[in-house]
Structures
1.
Amino acid sequence: MNLSSCYLFAGLSQSQLEYISGIATSMPVNKSSWLFHRGAPAECLYTVEKGAVELLIEVQPGIEIPINMIRPYNGCVGASCLVEPYRYSLSARCVEDGTLSVIRRADLTPLIEQHPHLGCILMTNLARHLLERLNETRQEVQLRFMSLVRSATF
Amino acid sequence: MNLSSCYLFAGLSQSQLEYISGIATSMPVNKSSWLFHRGAPAECLYTVEKGAVELLIEVQPGIEIPINMIRPYNGCVGASCLVEPYRYSLSARCVEDGTLSVIRRADLTPLIEQHPHLGCILMTNLARHLLERLNETRQEVQLRFMSLVRSATF
């Protein structure tokens, strides 16, 4: 398991990474199976060891907005399990047969409480990631706003 | 100074709040003065003691997208100074004469390193806040997407 390549675990020491590895379990997944749907209680964090997981918004049956594709060493899935209200903010579907590492919130929370230094690094990494996503999404809103302004002006 | 009402400092103990108060200084501000512009190096975090600060995106001269209005006991301004790349992600302008509390990153960073428990709470609060903002902004993108789908369908 190569946790250190996931943005959440960047900057952790070897021993801190071993604490995380110690609570992770391996899970085989099948192509087209759903990991979770937006709004469901967020109980687990997943990293992709093999295969790929698609993050998306289900707008209505048959209509989806793709958000991101997570592959091995390319982030993680379900980071909403780290912050209240502990609800997944996107839906996640496996796009290939593969293997995930699963970290249960019930195991991660006490680890963070026991090791606040680890927790501080992990939460700083999460905040940085969320700020990047927020800036990207605001950029999208701004582009649409500008095209509206242009069409209203000309 | 009532720091505990700011989302960033929620859940801190009295002694942790006193550490934060110990590095905060008071600053009078004038109506219409800019605190910072988007993209500038984020060196300070501000809470509003008196008055109001508007957060906005400057699209082009004379065109702005309002994002939020921060008043006393209603959040803080400049939380980007807590995460890399330490650049303000919005612009901030005072809309009334008032008083701000200023916390310099140069003072906050060592405090967090010295007190990882405090840092972990603060970063968890920041991550939760950013996830809320991200969900709201995605909701906005989704609404625009749906109206596009509707206009394409009917």
2.
Amino acid sequence: MALVNDFKWKKGMSVKELVSSYGNIGFQSIELKKASDVIVKMKKNNAKIFLTFTSNMVTSGLRGFFAQVIKLKMANVIVTTVGGIEEDIMKAKGEKFSIGSFENDDIELHEKGINRIGNLLINNESYMNFEDSIMPILDKLYAKQKQWTVSGMLREIGLMLNDDNSILYQAAKNNVPIFCPAVTDGAFGFHLYLFQEKHKDFIVDVVKDFGNILLCTSHDEKKAVIALGGGVSKHHAILSTLLNGGAEYAVYMTTAHKSSGSMSGATTEEAKSWGKVKDESDVATVIGDVTIMFPLAMINALEELDEDGILKEKRGK
Amino acid sequence: MALVNDFKWKKGMSVKELVSSYGNIGFQSIELKKASDVIVKMKKNNAKIFLTFTSNMVTSGLRGFFAQVIKLKMANVIVTTVGGIEEDIMKAKGEKFSIGSFENDDIELHEKGINRIGNLLINNESYMNFEDSIMPILDKLYAKQKQWTVSGMLREIGLMLNDDNSILYQAAKNNVPIFCPAVTDGAFGFHLYLFQEKHKDFIVDVVKDFGNILLCTSHDEKKAVIALGGGVSKHHAILSTLLNGGAEYAVYMTTAHKSSGSMSGATTEEAKSWGKVKDESDVATVIGDVTIMFPLAMINALEELDEDGILKEKRGK
Amino acid sequence: MALVNDFKWKKGMSVKELVSSYGNIGFQSIELKKASDVIVKMKKNNAKIFLTFTSNMVTSGLRGFFAQVIKLKMANVIVTTVGGIEEDIMKAKGEKFSIGSFENDDIELHEKGINRIGNLLINNESYMNFEDSIMPILDKLYAKQKQWTVSGMLREIGLMLNDDNSILYQAAKNNVPIFCPAVTDGAFGFHLYLFQEKHKDFIVDVVKDFGNILLCTSHDEKKAVIALGGGVSKHHAILSTLLNGGAEYAVYMTTAHKSSGSMSGATTEEAKSWGKVKDESDVATVIGDVTIMFPLAMINALEELDEDGILKEKRGK
Amino acid sequence: MALVNDFKWKKGMSVKELVSSYGNIGFQSIELKKASDVIVKMKKNNAKIFLTFTSNMVTSGLRGFFAQVIKLKMANVIVTTVGGIEEDIMKAKGEKFSIGSFENDDIELHEKGINRIGNLLINNESYMNFEDSIMPILDKLYAKQKQWTVSGMLREIGLMLNDDNSILYQAAKNNVPIFCPAVTDGAFGFHLYLFQEKHKDFIVDVVKDFGNILLCTSHDEKKAVIALGGGVSKHHAILSTLLNGGAEYAVYMTTAHKSSGSMSGATTEEAKSWGKVKDESDVATVIGDVTIMFPLAMINALEELDEDGILKEKRGK
């Protein structure tokens, strides 16, 4: 049985050394180390990895890391909400988001034309520039075909961007589909609506896209879910892997708790009920803020996989 | 300035007496009383009320209360996730959900064919029966027309149900549109997909439905949001009222906190930044479980409105 | 197996009717109803009830309710923190606390000489008046004897107060000991220190008081813990019942979660490990704000016990 | 204004590089970086640092880190709960704690004589061995003098231990007082009680110790509070710095939220009301698990201070 070890700082300590120590500290640090181990395991066992995140994480600087994770073949399917799509495009087009405070005066911000997401700030101008960018993009899409699935559309958009740090760009380049079931729930939805008003035969076919996520894997393939935050993104990945027999590996990171019965707070305990999880070492739930925890768990996994030559091999492709 | 009062139990105390006392107890009890007051105020000022909830609340017994709230004209627009739609239909078709425990053994439940949502349980059989119910419904819809908006489809389904406690039924009967932007994110999405496989021209048009929620109100009309839980439902109601100039009134009830920057945890403080909220008495955020808090706040509001003859008037229609 | 029932409002609904319905709604409402049932059970089975709460709850209007609960013999031992003692005395001496906001400007409040506890406000003046009240009280205690246990001291102070809504007063009158292990952690501690500076032989003997809480019950007696919030109060009640063989009944209400490994977030699951809890119906953990939940659970229990003549009997004594 | 930056992993990344990046990611990662900066600032400005933690953190491997932090002169006053004292002594005497799971079967553990604190496990044997260790220690203390303050007693015990990783040992060696206002709330309290039963004139004087914490600093000295977790420890440090005019710097790390009005969830916003905090850069509140966050913030601060020669200088003393 593993023992609690006294943690000690060593000068110049690496993230890998710290996360390794976490495994013997206690409480959520243990779960975080376990999450990292499960990520290593899912990769080594060639599972198809479904990575889900919410739009506020794309507002944050995790956006570039998600793009890198895709590039490193650590995510094979993406599920997210439309705000994340919008903000990835905004950033790819050069918009800058700035850092404010949870305690900012919202009325004052409103007068300055600034929108607040937690302690991050987006100017109204960025949304207006997004409108200017998206309309010609929709024109191009429409010129190609009248009916689109969401993932199909996002792939096309990704190919039009040219930003190494863009999630859409890296996903398109690496053949990673991005699913976004609630595609109309954001400024993008508004622009789709305006476009359709002018082009009545323009259709976004979400039902067909359900087929795409369903068929992007199979019962035979090993499957893994890394769900950051909750909501529709998390649920959609779980649903589509379940319809394929359930995931063998699952890592959930969330600030929500299971006490309200919400999807956001559902733990990987339930994953055991899918009947495919082999043992405790295949699942981990970590409670806390993803902006702190996901880099820790993923960096440690990347370092380990890199040492084992698994990351390098893929990178070479 | 209001004072803290020593709370005392009186035999046979009514919910209204208790919630009234809450206003002078402290912490979340004060916020809950305030939420109830904001609900009364939005109704008295004839605001169009957007009520949002997540699917786990429909799993719970709040489902009948939501139906009643719609019947009593206390909600004019509904936004929810597709799990809630499915379960409302299941219950209308006679399925029974049972009460388990947060600590149930999930592997054991799996072997018995039981699904757990927090401390509530749904049999696999209920999902199978849902499949049997939904297919002929889709046939009927398709016979009428090939392209549907989600809200249009849900209205038709509501009219086919015959259950006073059904959200879809009461919404259809009372001309309350139900929006569900992520309509494919559930068993219903799977059935839509299977149906489309057989009927290639069957289309669910989510873009057009964005127009419907956008145009269901206007800049001139007073608007209110009651958001129970977070996620896409909450965001969609806020987005569509914002595009109409912002809501004058907002009540959020959630277990999420603002510290993660998520939509689920966003408070009504931000609502002030919309520029239409007049003062502190127009918004309230209550932290806690909706199954306990929403009945308290809404019952107190219903009793007050009933005493003032406002509820009665509407009921008579 | 109990079923989920559609909840419906009835005009004039009582708290008892609502809490009864809670048992069939879902998530925390079910746990709250269970908590109420455990309270009824512990009383009917003549368990010695340890009630613990934190000082912010005494800042709130729960203070009068705690006094009433003691008067109604629903609490036989109290454990709390010293802030609660101070504020109970302040209120007994006529101080009024007022209602502010979680969003108050703290710098502004500071300039006005106002202290904020969440959304409640206490004037500096109240603390100064407390100083004026407590010094003659300490003089009287010292005149009687030089060494005091905390519970002995609090009993004497309770007898000096004359306020039906006072926790100390009702506890003293009803022979309910109040334990406060961290007695110096507040303004009261400061005054004890100043007093001791002038009277070097004045001693507060916390070690002896540990004996008092240990010996206030026994292995043979049935024991119950109702822990509101966490911290030292909760831990002290659990410790002293454990040293007497463990409690048969336990109700925890808290906003903390078990994920951090803290005492505040520890659930009643662990109570099963004491070996005396007979079955699931003897323990309940409810997650949420005590100002909302404790009145609900306790009122329902009081109404039930009153109907069964159990409360009346005691009241007649 | 600082901008959000796309985060990218670099092979062999150090903790310092990661925490530095955190400052431009978002949400709690920004607050964590800020907390680290405040720690650097308090040290550079020679503030007296009050470090508080709860006993579950001493159960965890943070115990060795706390000892190291004391040794490195990064904490000048300690406030904790008695469980932490007990477990520090147990570990110094060679007891090993092991790693379990939040989902362990508590009844089974009970049968095996194992106690669970979150996902950590302590054998009953360790408590029994503690009893064997503590009794001769109390004998020695009593032989020296009959009346002890808590901090005086803990200093003596620290000097009897011989473990570089022990909090008590390092504190005693480095003249860092340890305050523990609720000293009887644990097994140690029970042993003090048993000892007093045999030696009636043995007194633990908590009132006198209040004077010690009060006089360990002054109005003139700069003061800082690093509060890990909440409860009595956090409150006691805030109280004693407040009575000395308030702290100039404050870092709070907690899983509690301010919504319940508890001390555990109180944020550093309130610290501004003390009137001594100069600006935003002097305070930080981070929401999350201390086992993950404290090492990150403190390691980054240690690396920075070390680079600036500030840590080295102190170390040389």
